[in-house]
Amino acid sequence: MSLHTDERPWLTAAATVAFLVGVVALTEATPRSVLPIAVLFGGTALWNVVEAAVDTPKGSNWVVFGGLVACVGGLLALVDGSVLLGAAVVAAGLWFVADGATTVLYAPATERPAFLSGIDEDSGEAMRRMGTLRTVYQRLEAADSPVTPAELAADLELTEQRAADALSYLETQNRVEKEDAGYRVQPPRWGRFDPVVRFLVWVPRRLLRPVSRVRRGRAD
What we know:
- The protein is about 65% helix and about 5% strand.
- It has nine helices and two strands; from the N terminus they run H-H-H-H-H-H-H-E-E-H-H.
- It folds into two domains: about 100 residues, no CATH class; about 60 residues, Winged helix-like DNA-binding domain superfamily/Winged helix DNA-binding domain (Arc Repressor Mutant, subunit A, Orthogonal Bundle), CATH 1.10.10.10.
- Keywords: Membrane, Transmembrane, Transmembrane helix.
């Protein structure tokens, strides 16, 4: 996966260089002052060229992005004298490197949920799947009793397998729970503050995911 979608990476790389040269030539900026920006954007453009020519593993883009961010942080500290800001940027970059590296090492061993398989990131398929999840959840939310995959498929004009996959995925996200042969919306444990609590719980888990991947020997 690229840092951003780019069908003509060489053209983008050339345009990046031209832009940075223009900034120095037409403004009071010095090559030294634009060096952090040049490293980030220039490095991204060059990586897109590499990705266009080589089949890179999932997660490698975050390793490169994190390395570039860490370099920018180092330049902020050394060139601009912004030591605290530079250190914070370096720390953020190293986290991206760790997240990407553990993805490269352990993601291939992770089984992707059936509902998310076959999604093409360059198409609208991902958005359609998310729309299906939202529709399924809203249908369960309006139901007075558990809904089976067959009932859900008939109501929403889905295949029974697609309905079952969507329900299974929502169950892994703790949004619905199975009851007998059907599913129902999982009642919020924290009432109207439930989304906030879920987010606060998610943040440290996401930050520690590289560590948990190493400990478990697989991706979360």
